[in-house]
Request: fold
Amino acid sequence: MDIYLGKPRGFCAGVVRAIEIAEHSIKKFGSPVYIKHQIVHNPHVVTALEKKGAITIENVEKIPKGSTVIFSAHGSPPSDYDKAKKRQLKIIDATCPLVTKVHNEAKKYTKDKRKLILIGHEGHQEVIGTMGHAEVYLIDDRIKWTLPKWPKNQPITIITQTTLSIDDTMKVVRKITDYFSNVIVRNDLCYATTNRQLAVKKLCEKSDMILVIGSPESSNCNRLREVSESHGTPSYLISDADSLQKIKSKISGKIGIISGASTPELIVQQIITSLNADEITEIQVQEENINFTLPKIK
Ligand code: SF4
Reply:
């Protein structure tokens, strides 16, 4: 079996930063440190932090008064910060700076009296967070959607969830710009999402099948599987070497492997070992050397 290994793959700068924030906070404040929502959408990362002293929780109001809370990389609505303040929690923000950028855009364009369209997936933590920062018209292209009933010359700004499919998002953007005459389109799809989708497209040219390594809860991992399928290459999203066993009988030919922005490289290497490949070729489509600085944790 030949394996083509996509690059860039795995952790993005926002995920590295969120994990480091959580680790530093546990060291500094001791256990437990509460994390609002999974710090990133990967169970291996979540479990590793919980073993070190983190408690993942959805409801800020259930966190004991005076504790420390970290807000996850996906971003949270201001109402969650307000609840945390009311409970006198020490607040540490692990929101990815590229998600914060979208929040700031939402606030700026609202102030400029432009209406906002958010392209994103209803119920995803990042979308819940962004919708808390400004009034938006949400378009979720996984379901039947319609354009807002606004005048054609209504000033509009389009913002997006950071982890969507590039191609699907552009289709929605085109429909909006074809109808409305005064539209600003922000490019909010993050570099990590873009690069991994470019990598999976390249892998599709060489592979009979693509394995996307990551959590079924991860938006960017799901998009990688869909991108592969839309290029005509069958694809499976598997979370680890155990879930590989369930599909092992279906694996044949040349296998492309990619991992999402929240997947630890260790899991990828474990899967490669289980596949016992004859040859592994790394296919790099883009250099990636972005780092985000940590906030002061005090
Ligand atoms: S996937 Fe993109 S937006 Fe999400 S944490 Fe990583 S860099 Fe930030």
The chain has a mean pLDDT of 97. The pocket of iron/sulfur cluster is lined by residues 12-15, 73, 96, 98-99, 162-163, 190, 192-193, 220, 261 (CB under 6 Å). The domain at 2-11+191-284 is CATH 3.40.1010.20 (Cobalt-precorrin-4 Transmethylase; domain 1).
